[in-house]
Amino acid sequence: MALPRNLETLSAILHAEGTAAALAYLNEGVPHRFSAVYRFAGPMLRNVLLHDKAGEMRPEYLAAVPFDKSFCQFVLRDSSFRTDDSAADPRLEGHPYRGVVVSYHSVPLVSNAGELWGTLSHFDTAPLPLSDDEFELLQGAARLLPSFLVEG
Fold this sequence. Notes:
alpha+beta, 6 strands
C-alpha cells in the first residue's frame, strides 16, 4: 500500500497510470473485495471498471444491473450510500439484494457538464466497515475520476 493514502497520491496515480491503477489504489486501502465504477444507462447500470482483490475475471452478474434493483438508486436519491451489513440494515427491508451484496459504500460520479453519470463503489459479500477516512478518499476520487471517464 502506497503511503500516505490521500487524494494527491491518487491523483498522481490517475495521471501516470490511468483509471484501472487508480481504482486498484482505492481498493488497497479497504477490506472490500470489489471496487467499481458503474454508468447509468437507461434502466440499467453498466460496469465500466472493476477491481477485484481476488484477481478473478468479472462475474457476469456484475456486468449489468437493473437500476431499480441496485443499491445505486440510493446513491442517486441520497447523494451517497453506506451500509456495512445490508442484511441488518432496516433501510433495505424487502430489497432483493439485501444480504447478497452485504457491504456497500458508494458515491455519485458527475460529468464535467454537471450530469449524474454513475457511481464509484466499494462492496463485498461479507459485512465490512469502511473508515471515514477511506470514505472521504472515495468522495475525493469521485471528483477526480469523471475527467478520465466521462465526455462532456
